[in-house]
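Before relying on records like the one below, remember that each one covers exactly one chain. Contacts with other chains, cofactors or solvent are not represented anywhere in the record.
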Amino acid sequence: MRSIELFAGAGGLALGAALAGFRHEAVLELDADACDTIRGNQDREFWPASDWPRVEAVDVKDFDFSAIKPDLDLIAGGVPCQPWSLGGKHKGFEDARNLFPETVRIIRELRPKAIVIENVKGLTRKVFHNYFQYIQYQIRYPEIAQRTGETWERHLSRLEQHHTAGRHQGLQYTLVASLLNAADFGVPQRRERVFMVAFRSDLQIEWSFPTPSHSAESLLHSKYVTGDYWLRHGLPSRRTPPVPLRTKVGSLRSDLVARKPWKTVRDALVGLPHPVPQGSQRFFNHVHNPGARAYPGHTGSPLDEPAKTLKAGVHGVPGGENMLAYGNGEVRYFTVREAARMQTFPDDYVFHSSWTESMRQIGNAVPVDLAKLLAENIACCLRSAESTKAPSSLRRNSRVPPQFT
């Protein structure tokens, strides 16, 4: 299946889609260091990045999309998050880095069968509610473009009027948006991100996000009811939960316990030796970085919980939270390899930049395993639609407006 990747970063979403069977015809990223990371893995003949088109630093505004052949299956991308991030300047739609309008333009030009867009949880804040709805309406009706001099509020009003009129012709998409916690899908990290998935309406695909496969309740059960978690790691059983958790452990929901346990930092680090200053001969990027310290608001990730959200940061140590916290109060920085494991990058995916730059790229990435799961689900739906030979003409659509779920 044919795809292009926008705002690829270090390649997490692109890698997940490739592992799910999508073949990228363009991988676009503006940041030169992130491009170096992808190219470095291409040069090493790492599969599947080795068969991606050569990645060069390019702004999506300057790329010639006319070179992409028609009938594209997928456009995917993590649209730059700085305008909406809790750690940013909160400029939102007024931020020059707001590239949702460019994303919609590309959708309008290429008319892909499916779309995947990822962004930060901050996009769902009340202050951005109307603009988030505006983004969804634009994706749903990309041919109703913003007019010269028209404000986004007035454009939103036109889109709403178009939708409620119930007379829809031309290019349109059905869209589902949801806030996903990566830990609920087997990623060893609490990472909440907005995902928007859309299918071209002529394909008549009814889609929903996959059901979570892991839960916090199951992790608690495996620690303090069965003790399986400790046994799995060769540790003495600790059946008595900490005082704050005792009530919760005593009232666990059976349906959530039936899922797999959340994966923890300890789970993610299985097989990795303790990092040393000269690095590991067996593992890429596994070099101890000294100087970690805890301070209020930045205490690191407990060893026996999923990691806290890895952050890209803009000031010094990325986010100040990319640390491992031992039970005795000691902390140390994650190595690049350890952080890559938290984002489910393969161990032979190499990051070529400094520790700070590599951690920035990893903190910006989409977890590879979550990207692969979504892409596999989308690919399955596209193949099913192809096998049923859905009509090629765009049908009318009178669904309710896209909603955040």
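The chain has two domains: 2-212+366-388, 214-364.
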